[in-house]
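quick one: DP6 bound model?
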Amino acid sequence: MIEVTCTAPINIAVIKYWGKRDEKLILPINESTSATLDQSQLCAKTTVAASPDFTSDQMWLNGQEQSMDSARLQNVLKEIRRRARKRKSDGSGEDRVNWHVHICSENNFPTAAGLASSAAGLACLVFSLSKLFEVEGDISDVARQGSGSACRSIYGGFVEWTMGTEVDGSDSRALQIASETHWPQMRVLILVVSAKKKHVGSTTGMQTSVKTSQLLAHRAEKIVPERMVEMRRAIKDKDFQTFAEITMKDSNQLHACCLDTYPPVTYMTDTSRDIVRLVHAVNNHYGENKVAYTFDAGPNACLYLMEDMVPTMLGLVQNFFPPEQDHGEAFLTGLPSKVSTPSQELLNAIPLEPSVGAVQYIIHTKVGPGPQVLIDQSESLLDSTGQPK
Ligand code: DP6
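yep, here:
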């Protein structure tokens, strides 16, 4: 049996992907930009093994056996095996490519929290398979076929997903535009608003949007191309004012397109909207953008901010969204952080009433590197016979 264990990060888009021009190849209608988050706080972990003794391909996710029937999963496996065969055309190790695989995967965070778990999971699967079968070169286009946003999790730092023009999707790939060390002051606070499953998945939601929203068509054609250029410059120049403004506007536009979808799709809740008001009130108070919010296909907020603003923001979140008295687990997780008590002047500037229990917990994290191979054999999720431990 040969095996490899890897971890892969989640990524949070600041210019959103929403809509496909090809459902099978997963080709987007617009480009997107994201930051990859540190794997110490949030990551997927996968062990893949191949053996001549395995009688079928099998997969387990968070302890549960999964069907291998998914077309996306099959496409990913087929493509990795095809590349591996091409590489092994000298004959060495070619047999191994034909062995069945066992895949065991888990997230170090709750899947149902709606935190880009599919992006991390699929990126981790593709990265692990590429290591197992010694496939070299860019594999972001393979990850893309597992889940669109997964292609951006193949790289660390700040990443763009290029649309591409080829019909076979071969030039629709992710590209790192700045590494995780480029903007070291950047921090991320994820406010987990609801751990309930989202009501319409992003795949279905964006399908309906492409069919019905004229606003989405305009966004893809006119607005995103301009924003991509501006965002790339803002990241390169570490211009937080512009970075924050585009991030917030782009999140708002994604959710406006969801509302323009017929029938409409809604992901943000009253708490999400309160967080938007909080951020704008803070920025207004300071007379410049100190914090930016962004929301994906769910109610959780992801806040981008500079390190020096973290204690103030944490103080504000604790003030306006305090945990329930009997809140069992830690309210604040992730990177160590100071929490400062907001001044009365700042509190007076915020038009909100405290809402107990509306935010379940906070994850404090930062921008981080791409997928990693774990060398330590004890990290494996499979036992010596290839069964989950
Ligand atoms: C709102 O990548 O989950 O998070 O390609 O159908 O698997 P599929 O969709 P998915 O969509 C993510 C959408 C988003 C925005 C983003 O990450 O850019």
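The chain has a mean pLDDT of 94.
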